[in-house]
Specification:
Length: 423
């Protein structure tokens, strides 16, 4: 006996209504538990910057299958350069560092007023950043062995290890910059936004040395200066913002000036269009950040300061606020595990052959459209992974400290493998 069509449709509508009602109750509960003084605009900016990281990596993280069925990295930007401007929208690390500088400065100030030593404050922040990184690297140290034993091609395992380790550089740079917070505060109080301007000029000078007429005589290590100055720029602006040294007029200047500098560098000075590295190109904006990245960060930070209050008002709606809370609670989990979510889909898929948008070469607009359809799958897998890995963001106490030592050893082994020091 079959269910009449009208009855089946009514049943589906009923289930959908119950799901909506349940989601609304959860959103209202989250909203009710939010402290009145919570800066929703700042949390919204952080969530936006966080979600841009996996979205960007999932869009440019293409694969090809070799004759042995092994996965190898491939970027759609190589064959589809017209996609490069998309990276301007997804490269939101400037906003991430802006919000990070603001939050760290406020946290440091509260700790100082409570009598907490600066070393203890820093230790707490670094542990919070380090635990998820150790966890993902330790898990993958075990997974490498499991995947080999399961018959996964060695090239696939190497590709996976490379993709997992790549985003973790960001946490290391962010941790180092966080340690500079006391000095950033002093600079912000003394110089205001000029303290960030000095960093921009530093990046410009290093770029001139790297790409100017005397580039052949400049040692390679000089470019590493931009690794600190480039990313510290947004963080320093955030510290200035926390000290009320970043006015709306300054924000407008950052937006307009950053956009003008960005356009000038692209049109007159031949900077690469993409914000991320493109295989085969001899020059990149990403590692270390070039002046183009800093110009984009300036424009983004100016826009973020101007839009903060408007975003905060929009997030007074429980339906919008609930997902922002969820993203912020899993910030480091998203950063550390999003590549694992993609690999958890792609590695099994590689045994099924060429799957459009997943294991086929990223060489056409059809691939882009197919990859867009895979993004919800990656997001769902990441949500499932986060359900179990979110605990790694919490403190490791008691027996957990022993696990931390073991995790550190496993993480070191995995890092050595991923970086090619061991095979």
């Amino acid at each position: 006996m079959t269910t009449p069509p009208d009855t089946a449709a009514a049943s589906r509508l009923s289930r959908l209504s119950r799901l909506r009602a349940s989601a609304r109750r959860v959103a209202l509960a989250i909203d009710a538990r939010t402290p009145l003084g919570r800066d929703r605009g700042l949390d919204g900016l952080r969530a936006l910057a966080l979600l841009a990281v996996p979205t960007g990596h999932w869009l440019v993280g293409g694969f090809t299958l070799d004759a042995d069925g092994a996965l190898r990295n491939a970027s759609p930007l190589t064959a589809l350069p017209f996609l490069a401007p998309v990276s301007w929208l997804l490269q939101l690390l400037g906003i991430f560092f802006l919000v990070g500088g603001y939050a760290s400065a406020r946290s440091y100030g509260r700790a100082a007023r409570s009598g907490v030593p600066a070393t203890e404050w820093l230790r707490s922040r670094l542990l919070r950043l380090g635990r998820p990184v150790l966890a993902v690297a330790a898990v993958w140290a075990v997974l490498v062995t499991v995947l080999h034993a399961a018959g996964v091609p060695a090239a696939t395992v190497r590709t996976a290890a490379t993709l997992v380790i790549q985003p973790l550089w960001f946490v290391g740079v962010y941790a180092f910059i966080t340690a500079l917070t006391p000095w950033c505060l002093r600079a912000a109080r003394r110089l205001g936004p000029l303290s960030a301007g000095i960093l921009l000029v530093t990046v410009a000078a290093v770029d001139f040395l790297r790409y100017g007429p005397y580039a052949d005589a400049v040692p390679g290590w000089v470019s590493l200066v931009n690794l600190l100055a480039g990313w510290l720029f947004g963080y320093q602006l955030g510290v200035c913002w926390s000290e009320h040294r970043l006015s709306r007029r300054t924000a407008l200047a950052l937006l307009a000036g950053g956009a003008a500098l960005f356009a000038t560098l692209l049109l007159a000075f031949g900077y690469p269009v993409s914000m991320v590295g493109v295989p085969g190109e001899g020059r990149t904006n990403a590692h270390p950040p070039s002046l183009l990245v800093v110009a984009l960060a300036a424009a983004q930070c100016g826009a973020a300061v101007l839009l903060r209050d408007r975003i905060g008002r929009a997030l007074l709606r429980p339906a919008l606020w609930a997902p922002v809370v969820a993203v912020n609670l899993c910030a480091l989990t998203i950063l550390c595990w999003h590549q694992t979510a993609m690999l958890a889909t792609a590695i099994p898929g590689s045994f099924l052959g060429a799957l459009p948008g997943l294991t086929t070469a990223p060489q056409s607009t059809e691939w882009v459209l197919a990859r867009l359809l895979w993004l919800p799958v990656f997001a769902l897998v990441l949500a499932l992974i986060a359900r179990y890995t979110r605990r790694f963001e919490g403190p490791w106490t008691g027996a957990g400290r022993a696990r931390g030592v073991i995790a550190s050893v496993l993480a070191a082994v995995f890092a050595a493998f991923a970086l090619g020091f061991v095979s």
